[in-house]
Amino acid sequence: MREQLAPLMRKEIVQFASGEFQLTGFWDFPIGEGPFPGVICCHGFTGHHVEARRLFSRLARRLAECGIAVFRFDYRGCGDSAGDLLDFTPAGLLEDLDAAAQLFFSETRLDKKRLAVMGYSLGGLSAAYLLSRTPESWQTAAIWAGVARPEIIRDRLAQYPSFDGYKRRGYMDYGGLRVSAAYIDEIGTCAKPVEWMKRFSGPILFCHGENDDIVRLEQSQLFLSTRNNPGDQLVVLPGADHGFSSCEIIDDLLESTVCWLVEKLIHVDVGE
Known about the structure:
The chain is α/β, with parallel strands linked by helices. The chain has two domains: about 10-150 and about 195-265, 3-Layer(aba) Sandwich (Rossmann fold), CATH 3.40.50.1820; about 150-190, no CATH class. It has nine helices and ten strands. It has helices at about 55-65, 90-105, 120-135, 150-155, 165-170, 180-190, 195-200, 215-225, 245-265, and strands at about 10-20, 20-30, 35-40, 70-75, 110-120, 140-145, 170-175, 175-180, 205-210, 235. The chain has an eight-stranded mixed sheet, sandwiched between helices. A two-stranded antiparallel sheet has the order 7-8. Helix 1 (about 55-65) packs across helix 9 (about 245-265) and helix 4 (about 150-155) packs antiparallel against helix 6 (about 180-190). The longest helix has 19 residues, at about 245-265. The model has no long low-confidence stretch (mean pLDDT about 95).
């Protein structure tokens, strides 16, 4: 019989309202009483709180073991939250982010001077939005393959045969998921991640795959050039695609992110 390992974290599941939808969130707390530094994670398009290859789950566990609490949640129509992907419009996305941030900020076990936001792919756009809403609330951010120019989303979807006729149908069949016409038509005009990101003056870590052909490396480079912040850092992962699809690449991605967040949230004096 295997020896039972002592728990290094506590998990909690919460539900909260965003408009007419009930969203599901997941906390990973370190062992202890706190208050803890905290990170809110924003998943990508059609993603969820676990993400492919368990990227978010693995990150959350490592951060909790380092003493950092992590909040992950599913947007409407994603993961364990209510709704259908058809409900996932740009306006709905922002409404969900506001609701998730309100819950995150209300958590009494968090150290309000040591907070960060993290986003993957479309979640990079989401992270930029949260940073712009309350820039004084965040110490830092970490962005994986973040979308800086959201018009590339429509350009990519247009390459699929099922894109034809989406306006007439009101949706596009995206591998068995219905992507709303509102999302396709509006995401490139109402989302302004580059402008949003400039409102935050703290340091940001950008991680990007060298061979990412879905959200190309130039997207992170655009964030860097427009922010022109000497505290920012770009980690380019050699040979990595958009999904960071190898064990060694994921090891490097997680190590870079954990080290950054531990340095910025724990090994720093934020003052009184």
